[in-house]
Amino acid sequence: MLSKTTVLNSIQKMPDQFTLEELIERLILLEKIENGLAQAKEGKVIPHEVINEAWQAELRAREEALENGTSVGRPFRDVLDKYLKK
User: How confident is the model over 19-43, as pLDDT tens digits?
Assistant: First the structure.
């Protein structure tokens, strides 16, 4: 949830003229940041090692796909799903 202070501070940093769409985008971004910070405080994060492992799997799959002329699949998502199911 956003605080009035956060929203007002953000609006004050915007130019004197802006569109409604720009304001809505800014508010959505603020909300996403606040949600992410709250999740981090609750420990709902994926460790760097898991992300690195998923990225390496993605890169290997892409290299193999280029060599073999096949599709990549979902290696990044598969690694994350495996971690999340623990």
Answer: 999 999 999 999 999 999 999 999 9
